[in-house]
Specification:
globular, binds protoporphyrin IX containing FE, binds calcium ion, mainly alpha, about 575 residues, iron
């Protein structure tokens, strides 16, 4: 508070943020407890996160666990990064190296892959400081934090309008019932026949399997809109659109809490953080004190655990479930070709792959396709996603691993061994590797420390990430006035409608929009045992007749104290 009194007699932020104060509030975390520079994120990545010769498969879960994680992540957070003139990326290894916008990653001399000494990295955009009051640097979220289908519909009225046809509540589509086209500079194109996909989230073209998630929900929206329009001929475009959007958002919440999270967590964690939906009827959980904003520790580290589940390739599985084509992931970034090829059949084959093939274990290992070759461009430049995650944590000033241990009521490590007082949730071998790169346990970055923990039995993560993720998913549920299970007259579903939403599974959504000869009921788990392949006809369906002759009442919004 003493430092902040500087603001009393200054007028410009640049004056307020004098050199010593700036060091405290604005600079990245860059030194360890001994005052020496923290190890290079690329070095940490090489020692802790390099994958072995063979990818370690998840014996229980399909690629869908990874793919839903990314699609969901894009519904809840997008952190803007500082950009130069006309939106061009800063070259932080070249002429901009010493600018305050830059925080390039040093590459150690004897790196096994990179030949240069620098990986480009621009800092996340800071929240504009208010007047003359220089607060701690904070970052922004440019999408809606609520799980509300914003990746399908956009996060602003302008984005939404651009995605709608304006007729019969429908979303725009492109050839072969794919998402509509966007400008050609939004992705990399193989030929003039290909086009960049447009969706509610700008990252839709990152990998083909993500394009599949987006395409699926555009199709499902239009399928439902057509049924609702036929059931209610008196509804106009706006009514059909909003009623359909309400159903799609509820489906995304329902699939997240009844299929995705139970794949990531065991039953204890689901119960501890109140993450279970009830099988039928209302479950009003809204708590006006809970804020559904996305925490920095979640966006920058914990929810990036899914990066270790990304497979080495993107694949297509054909109708017979025998034939599979595999394309190394480094050749698919920002390139929607696989989705669009063969008159959109590529899309369906990717969906079949994601829903049926084993995913990768959510361990500390990240594959070369994104640990060395992320966003490989035609000039041969690429990134290391593990190093970028660690650097982003430092850029945001995220407290190190031990801090979060204490925050979560878990013991902090005083030594690198794995006996009590040390890294009790790590394997002894991993403790040794951490000691090799870090000078002190207090220096361990949250991403690395959390990702390298042993799993809680039945979970895809260890105790520290389970705590950060559990609290965040609880906040998305209890902090959402429009949570699909809430009973608020006038804005929610009727009980009969809610019970239809509660029949929804991802397998149903896939069956409704692709020709799947067979599918397992839970597509987050591999088809085996009780979850064996069945006919699409055997998958429960949502009965939309519950929306027939249904008239939206004028919303009677509940009034809560803090809304005064
Ligand atoms: C093919 C798959 C994926 C690729 C290529 C990818 C790539 C990336 C990249 C390049 C970033 C930005 C890094 C930075 O500059 O800080 C990022 C951010 C992120 N990723 Fe992924 N990712 C993938 C899948 C996933 C999955 C499966 C999850 C979670 C289950 C996930 C969670 C996140 C989160 C939470 C962020 C932070 C978003 C933000 O704050 O803007 N990603 N990812
Ligand atoms: Ca959202």
């Amino acid at each position: 508070s003493k430092a902040l009194s500087v603001t009393d007699h200054c007028h410009l932020t640049s004056v307020c943020v004098g050199s010593s104060l700036r060091l405290v509030i604005d600079t990245p975390r860059s030194r360890g407890v001994y005052g020496t520079p923290l190890p290079s994120p690329r070095l940490i990545s090489n020692v802790i996160h390099a994958a072995g010769k063979k990818a370690i498969l998840d014996s229980e879960h399909t690629v869908m666990e990874m793919q839903w994680g990314q699609f969901l992540d894009h519904d809840i957070v997008q952190t803007p990064v500082l950009k130069g003139k006309m939106g061009a990326a800063f070259d932080c290894c070249g002429e901009f190296k010493n600018r305050s916008e830059c925080f390039p990653i040093p590459i150690p001399k004897d790196d096994p892959f990179f030949k240069t000494d620098c990986m480009n990295f621009a800092r996340s955009a800071p929240v504009p400081t208010q007047g003359c009051n220089p607060g701690y640097r904070e970052q922004m979220n440019q999408v809606t934090s609520y799980i509300d289908g914003s990746a399908v519909y956009g996060s602003s009225p302008e984005e939404q309008t651009a995605l709608r046809t304006g007729e019969q509540g429908l979303l725009k589509t492109g050839p072969n019932n794919l998402p509509p086209p966007n400008d050609a500079d939004k992705c990399m194109l193989n030929s003039t026949e290909d086009y960049c996909l447009r969706a509610g989230d700008s990252r839709v073209n990152v990998v083909p399997s993500l394009g599949m998630s987006h395409s699926t929900f555009v199709r499902e929206h239009n399928r439902i809109a057509r049924v609702l329009g036929a059931l209610n001929p008196h509804w106009d475009d706006e009514t059909i659109f909003q009623e359909t959007r309400k159903i799609i958002a509820a489906m995304i919440q329902h699939i997240t809490y009844t299929e995705y999270l139970p794949a990531v967590f065991n039953d204890d964690v689901m119960t501890k953080y109140n993450l279970k939906s009830t099988p039928k009827g209302f479950n009003t959980v809204y708590n006006p004190k809970r804020k559904a904003t996305t925490a920095n520790s979640f966006a920058v580290a914990a929810f990036r655990f899914g990066h270790s589940q990304i497979p080495r390739y993107q694949a297509r599985v054909s109708h017979d479930y025998q034939h599979m084509t595999k394309t190394p992931i480094e050749f698919t970034y920002h390139n929607p070709h696989m989705v669009e090829e063969d008159n959109g059949l590529g899309l369906e084959d990717i969906a079949r792959w994601v829903a049926s093939d084993n995913g990768l274990e959510a361990d500390r290992f990240m594959e070369d396709g994104y640990r060395n070759l992320l966003f490989l461009d035609r000039q041969g430049n690429s990134f290391d996603l593990a190093a970028v995650n660690i650097q982003r944590g430092r850029d945001h000033g995220i407290a190190p691993y031990n801090h979060w241990r204490t925050y979560c009521g878990l013991p902090a490590a005083k030594t690198f061994d794995t006996k009590p007082g040390g890294l009790v949730d790590h394997d002894p071998d991993v403790g040794k590797l951490l000691k090799q790169v870090y000078s002190h346990p207090d220096d361990i970055d949250l991403f690395t420390g959390g990702l390298s923990e042993n799993f809680i039995p039945g979970c895809s993560v260890g105790p520290t990430f389970a705590c950060i993720l559990g609290k965040q998913f609880r906040a998305y549920k209890e902090g959402d006035r429009f949570w699909y299970e809430n009973r608020f007259t006038g804005i929610g579903f009727t009980e009969a409608q809610l019970n239809e939403i509660k029949k929804v599974r991802m397998s149903m959504v896939l069956c409704n929009n692709y020709k799947f000869e067979k599918i397992q009921t839970n597509v987050f788990e591999v088809p085996q045992g009780k979850n064996k392949f069945v006919d699409c006809a055997d998958i429960p369906q949502i009965d939309l007749s519950k929306w027939e002759a249904y008239r939206r009442k004028r919303p009677a919004y509940p009034v809560f104290k803090h809304h005064k």
